[in-house]
Design brief:
The structure holds two protein chains of two kinds.
Chain A (H helix, E strand, L loop, with lengths): L2 H14 L4 E7 L5 H14 L3 E4 L10 H12 L4 H12 L4 E4 L2 H5 L3 H11 L4 E3 L5 H14 L2 E3 L1 E2 L5 H9 L5 E4 L15 H11 L4 E4 L5 H10 L2 E4 L1 H6 L5 H18 L1
Parallel strand pairs in A: 1-2, 1-9, 2-3, 3-4, 4-5, 6-7, 7-8, 8-9
Helix pairs in contact in A: 2-4, 2-12, 6-7, 10-12
Chain B lengths: L6 E2 L2 E2 L8 H14 L3 H15 L5 E3 L1 H7 L3 E5 L9 H14 L4 E6 L3 H13 L2 E7 H6 L1 H9 L3 E5 L6 H14 L4 E4 L9 H24 L5 E5 L4 H7 L9 E9 L15 E5 L2 E5 L24 H9 L2 E7 H15 L5 H12 L7 E5 L7 H6 L1
Parallel strand pairs in B: 4-14, 5-6, 5-8, 6-7, 9-10, 9-14, 10-13
Antiparallel strand pairs in B: 1-2, 3-4, 11-12
Classes of the chains: A alpha/beta, B alpha/beta.
Chain lengths: ~260, ~375
C-alpha cells in the first residue's frame, strides 16, 4: 500500500471502533536516542498513527516546549539519520508521518531525495509546517511520485476560498490548526473550532485531524467528537522528560484512547 | 497598481506557517496601495525631511580619496535620525501599520539600531512597541536597550540558541503567529517572507535615489562603483536599486568574513552559503548539509546573521552585483582609519565597505560608498578588543 492508503486505513480502523484516530507526536532523539526508542515503542501500543518530529534548529511553528526539545535533541546528537531510524522502528506497526521543516526537505538533494529516504524508512508522508500551498507544488509532485502523502495545514485565519484549494490538494489527511499561535498546551480549545473543522470536513476528501493546544484526554475527546483524528504534541514531549518516559507517555495515551472511545 | 514582487528569480517566496498567510496577503495589498497613494507618499516624504533629516549628504571624502587614489563619496546615512539607515524602513512600516489599523508593533533587533528606530517611529506615531532581542545582544548593546526603554518600548530578552539576532527574528515571528490580528511585524532588513523583502527595499530605495541624483549633480556622470555592506542587505539593496539599470555602474556588496571564510566563523551568506529557507524566504543561507541553520559570526552585530535578502541572491546569480568579503580585523582597521582620516566614526557594519575599498582602490571613475550608520554603538566593542 502507498503512504496515503496506509494513512486512510488507519483512520478507517479507528472509525470502525467508533472513535477518532489518536496521533501522538514525538521528537526524534529527544530527550536522547534510547529514550526516544522507548517512547516510540509505547506509542505503537496505543496510537493509530505517529507524527515523528525531525529536530530542526529554527522551528518557527513551534512553541517553547517543542522548540526546546528540538534544541536539546540536536545537542544530544540527533540528526536526520536518528529520525530515519526511529521511523524504521515504528513503521512496521503504525503509519508514520514526519513533521519536518521546509529547509530540511529542500536541503541535501531536495524533495526527491527526502522522499526516497522517507520511503525507504517506511514513512507514509510528511507535514511541512512552513510550506504553504503556493510553495508546496514541487514537493507534492515528488511525494506523489514516491507514494508519500504531503499533509497540508489549515489555520483559523485561512480564508474559506483558500481552505477549499488546500483541501483539494490534500494528501493523507488535512491538519487543522486549532488556535492562532504556535504549538503548545492551552487551557481551552476555541469555541470556533467546531465550525472550522466542519467546514474543512465538507471540503476535504481525506480525513481531518486537529492539532495544536490539545493537552488533556478531555480535550482530545472534545476534538474526537468533531474531527477524524486528534494530534497531541507538547504534552507528550513533556511526558518524555519523566524518569520513566515510556510509562508516562504510555499511561497518558491509554487514558486518552479510553476518553476517545467513551467520548 | 504594480504588483509587489514575491520572487526574485527562484528566491523569495513565503515559507511560513499557514496562520500568517492571510496577514501577508493583507500586507501585500496594503503596500501595493499605499506606495502609490499620493497622500501616503507625501506624509512619508515630510517625515523623511523633517523627522529623519533627509536628504542625507553625499560627502566627498577628500583624505580618504587621496589614500585610495580615486575620488570617493560617502552617503551619510550615519547622519539620519537615530544614527543609521534603519529609520527609513521603520518610519515607513510603522506609518503603514497605522494605516492598516494595527495598534501593536513588534520588531527584532541585533545591535539595537533597528529596535531603536522602530521604538522611535512608534513613539512618533503613538503605537505600542515590543522588541525582541537576544540576551547576549542585550548584554553587548546596553545603551541601545536603555534608549528603547526611554522611547517607551518593551524589550523582551530571547534566551534560545546563541541568544543573538537569528533567535530574535524567530521569536518575533512566533509572536506574530500568535497575535496576527492586532500586530504588525516591522522586520528590520530586506529578508523574511514576501512582501517584506520588496517592502523593505522600497522603503530603503530613498538612499539610492538621493545618492544617484547627488552624485550626478556633483560629478556630471554616474559613479564607476557603488559599494555597501551586506548583512540582511537593506542598506545595500536600498542604494543599489536605483543604479541597477545603469549597466556601467558596478554594484559591490561587502559581507563579513569574520575570522576568515575558511573558518566556520563568518557571516558570508552569499559568498559561502547554500540555497535554503530561513525566516520565511528561499535565499542563500549558512546551513549544514542536513539543513540545520548554523550560527554566523561577525565583529559587527548587524552582519552577524546566517541569511541574506533573496533579491541579493538573485543579483549575485545574474551577475548584476558582485559580493566580496572582509574580515573582522580588516573592518576594525578601516573603522579606526576613517575616524582619523575623516573625523567620522563609522558603524562596524559600514566599516566593512570602507575596508574593501582600502584594498581595492584605483580604476576609472569615482566611487560611492553607503556609510550606513554611525559607530557610537560600537565603541565599547572596539575599545575592548
Amino acid at each position: 500500500m502507498t503512504g496515503p492508503e496506509l494513512i486512510a486505513a488507519a483512520f478507517d480502523a479507528a472509525r470502525e471502533e467508533g472513535r477518532a484516530a489518536l496521533m501522538p507526536y514525538m521528537m526524534a532523539g529527544y530527550p536522547d536516542r534510547e529514550t526516544s526508542s522507548a517512547v516510540a515503542a509505547a506509542y505503537a501500543e496505543s496510537a493509530d498513527l505517529v507524527e515523528l518530529g525531525i529536530p530542526f534548529s529554527d522551528p518557527l511553528a513551534d512553541g517553547p516546549t517543542i522548540h526546546a526539545a528540538a534544541t536539546a535533541a540536536l545537542e544530544a546528537g540527533a540528526s536526520m539519520d536518528t529520525a530515519i531510524e526511529i521511523c524504521e522502528e515504528i513503521a512496521e506497526r503504525l503509519p508514520v508521518v514526519f513533521m519536518v521543516y521546509a529547509n530540511m526537505v529542500l536541503a541535501h538533494g531536495g524533495a526527491e531525495e527526502f522522499a526516497r529516504r522517507a520511503l525507504d524508512a517506511g514513512a507514509c508522508g510528511a507535514i511541512v509546517p512552513d510550506l504553504p500551498l503556493e510553495e508546496a507544488e514541487p514537493v507534492r509532485a515528488a511525494f506523489d511520485a514516491a507514494g508519500l502523502a504531503l499533509v497540508p495545514l489549515v489555520a483559523p485565519t485561512t480564508p474559506a476560498e483558500r481552505r477549499a484549494r488546500i483541501c483539494a490538494a490534500a494528501r493523507g489527511f488535512v491538519y487543522v490548526v486549532s488556535t492562532v499561535g504556535t504549538t503548545g498546551e492551552r487551557d481551552e480549545l476555541p469555541a470556533e473550532l467546531a465550525e472550522l473543522v466542519a467546514a474543512t470536513k465538507a471540503e476535504a476528501e481525506v480525513p481531518v485531524a486537529v492539532g495544536f493546544g490539545i493537552g488533556t484526554p478531555r480535550q482530545a475527546a472534545q476534538v474526537g467528537e468533531i474531527a477524524d483524528g486528534a494530534i497531541i504534541g507538547s504534552r507528550l514531549v513533556r511526558a518524555a522528560e519523566e524518569a520513566d518516559a515510556a510509562e508516562a507517555v504510555g499511561s497518558f495515551l491509554r487514558e486518552t484512547r479510553d476518553a476517545l472511545v467513551s467520548g | 497598481m504594480s504588483a509587489v514582487e514575491e520572487r526574485f528569480g527562484p528566491y523569495g517566496g513565503r515559507y511560513v506557517p499557514e496562520t500568517l498567510i492571510s496577514a501577508l496577503d493583507e500586507l501585500t495589498a496594503a503596500w501595493a496601495e499605499a506606495r502609490e497613494d499620493p497622500a501616503f507618499r507625501e506624509r512619508l516624504a515630510l517625515l523623511h525631511r523633517d523627522f529623519v533629516g533627509r536628504p542625507t549628504p553625499l560627502y566627498r571624502a577628500e583624505r580618504l580619496s587621496e589614500r585610495v587614489g580615486k575620488t570617493v563619496y560617502l552617503k551619510r546615512e550615519d547622519l539620519a535620525h537615530t544614527g543609521a539607515h534603519k529609520i527609513n524602513n521603520a518610519v515607513g512600516q510603522v506609518l503603514l501599520a497605522q494605516r492598516m489599523g494595527k495598534p501593536r508593533i513588534i520588531a527584532e533587533t541585533g545591535a539595537g539600531q533597528h529596535g531603536v528606530a522602530t521604538a522611535t517611529a512608534c513613539a512618533l506615531l503613538g503605537l505600542e512597541c515590543v522588541v525582541y532581542m537576544g540576551s547576549e545582544d542585550i548584554r553587548r548593546q546596553k545603551p541601545n536597550v536603555e534608549r528603547m526603554g526611554l522611547l517607551g518600548a518593551e524589550v523582551v530578552p530571547v534566551e534560545a540558541g546563541a541568544r543573538t539576532l537569528k533567535e530574535a527574528v524567530s521569536a518575533a515571528i512566533r509572536d506574530w503567529v500568535a497575535n496576527v490580528a492586532t500586530t504588525h511585524y516591522v522586520i528590520g532588513s530586506a529578508v523574511g517572507p514576501a512582501p517584506f523583502p520588496a517592502l523593505v527595499r522600497d522603503l530603503q530605495t530613498v538612499i539610492g535615489e538621493e545618492a544617484r541624483e547627488q552624485a550626478l549633480a556633483a560629478e556630471g556622470e554616474l559613479p564607476g562603483r557603488v559599494i555597501a555592506c551586506v548583512g540582511g542587505g537593506s542598506n545595500s539593496i536600498g542604494i543599489f536599486t536605483p543604479f541597477v539599470e545603469d549597466a556601467a555602474v558596478e554594484l559591490i556588496g561587502v559581507e563579513a568574513a569574520g575570522e576568515g571564510l575558511d573558518s566556520d566563523r563568518h557571516g558570508a551568506s552569499l559568498g559561502k552559503g547554500t540555497t535554503g529557507v530561513l525566516h520565511g524566504s528561499l535565499s542563500s543561507i549558512i546551513a549544514d548539509e542536513e539543513g540545520q541553520i548554523l550560527e554566523a559570526h561577525s565583529v559587527s552585530a548587524g552582519l552577524d546573521y546566517p541569511g541574506v535578502g533573496p533579491e541579493h541572491a538573485w543579483l549575485r546569480d545574474t551577475g548584476r552585483a558582485s559580493y566580496v568579503s572582509v574580515t573582522d580585523a580588516q573592518a576594525l582597521d578601516a573603522f579606526k582609519l576613517l575616524c582619523r582620516l575623516e573625523g567620522i566614526i563609522p558603524a562596524l557594519e559600514s566599516s566593512h565597505a570602507i575596508a574593501w575599498l582600502l584594498e581595492n582602490g584605483g580604476g576609472d571613475g569615482y566611487d560611492v560608498i553607503c556609510l550606513s550608520g554611525r559607530g557610537d554603538k560600537d565603541l565599547a566593542e572596539v575599545l575592548s578588543l
